Amino acid sequence: MAARIETMREPRRSYIPAAGHDWFLPLYDPLVKLLGAEPARKKLLDEATLRPGHRVLDIGCGAGSLVTLIKRLYPDVDVVGLDPDPKALTRARRKAERASVSAQFDQGFSDELPYPEASFDRVFSSFMFHHLEPDEKEKTLRDVRRVLKPAGSFHMLDFGGPDSARGGFLAHLLHSSRRLKDNTESQTLTLMRGAGFADPRKVGHGSMLLGSISITFYQASVRTSQ
After folding, report:
1. Residue 187 belongs to what domain range?
2. Quick check: is 114 in a domain?
3. Hey, how many other C-beta atoms are within 10 angstroms of the C-beta on 26?
4. Number of domains making up the chain
5. Tens digit of pLDDT for each residue in 115-165?
6. What's the burial of 141, exposed, middle or buried (CB within 10 Å: 0-12/13-18/19+)?
7. Of 5, 51, 110, 114, most Cβ neighbours within 10 A?
8. What CATH number does the domain containing 186 carry?
9. What pTM, to 2 d.p., does this model score?
10. Strand, helix or coil for residue 158
11. Is residue 226, in this structure, part of any structural domain at all?
12. Per-position b or e across 28-63, b if 16+ CB within 10 A of its CB
């Protein structure tokens, strides 16, 4: 089975590459695996309660690790990965092909999702949200809310902000402190509520690489009456 890659439109905006820097992209997957990201992503999926027939979207999918993991663990789920970085999408397609899974990869931005309303049962974000500027975070959450079906849910995993229990030294090394300083739990939950999500909450926390990197899990749902 082969991956499908579709370019929705050529990005005319600037963006942070999936690995932070283009030169770092070939090293990104080995380093992230070494840090312990796969168990964290499996926990993220456990929280989502995926079922056969679900259609799910991974925003900021980067090199496609979460997309491929979803298809390996839940082969009857339809998965779409979205990222503005064409180099990362090329790697994502190759990764899916090597794993013999079928997935769709689209080029685009998380705050301009090229999908109709109520298109997905679940939307995921894994180690991406801190890349965004404050206005992009607001727009992203509103658009995620728009494309979720009634009773759908949003599941996010990201580095902890400066209010977390651990300092996150390596997270600051990999990503600028300017982007992490606004990545607090209270700010994230406030943005989710402002986007119209029901019951946004932190559902877990943990660490990677012997406690040197703090991570936080979030979940928010769509009211069935809306």
Report:
1. 4-10+18-221
2. yes
3. 12
4. 1
5. 999 999 999 999 889 889 899 999 999 999 999 999 999 999 998 765 544
6. buried
7. 110
8. 3.40.50.150
9. 0.83
10. strand
11. no
12. bbeebeebbbeebbeebbebbebeeebbbbbbbbbb
